[in-house]
Amino acid sequence: MGELTAADWTAELERNGRVVFPLRRRPYLLRGAVILLVFGSSRVLRLIEIADQSSYSRFATVISSIFLLILIGLGTWQLITRRPILIVDADGIRYGRKFLAWDAVGTAGIPRGPAFFRVLPVLPANVWDKEIQIHRDNVRDLSAFSDWLNSLRPARKESDGDHA
Fold first, then answer.
1. Cα 88–22–114 angle (5° rounding)?
2. Residues 127-136 as b or e (16 or more Cβ within 10 Å = b)
3. Distances in Å between the alpha carbon of 50 and those of 39, 59, 71?
4. What angle do CA 106, 107, 111 make, to 5 degrees?
5. How far is CA 76 from CA 33, 86, 87, 113, 135, in A?
6. pTM passes above 0.85
7. What is the pLDDT of residues 12-62, one digit of tens each?
8. How far is CA 101 from the centre of its chain?
């Protein structure tokens, strides 16, 4: 769903009452491969030289290698389960465990960050609440998604007001 257009998202919302954006595996895998290449190669070289290191350096190398293996495990789990899942429905916006009801949504902001790590902030109406940051891993075109969310927001608030 994250590869499609705003018209497709609207049609899916009208048809099923919600739009589900699971994790897109390709961008997540590419970013993970680059990070693994940069950090993993240095860890492998450090493990090869472990016999020539002091005890503190050995300990740091082993701990950082364990940390890298944990990150690889968590990344693999995310690839298999395709989580976090972004869901837009009549109730609001859910991204993983975070949820903003439509009456609590202020606006969908402007995508920020470098292309590889770009995020879209969904700002709450109450400035003290936490924003939801939607990653490019779920939606390819964050600018179009921002426009789509902002176009849904007034319609959702009006429909919520009609039912009250």
1. 90
2. eeeebbebbb
3. 17, 9, 21
4. 145
5. 11, 19, 22, 24, 17
6. no
7. 999 999 999 999 988 888 888 888 888 777 777 777 677 677 787 778 778
8. 18
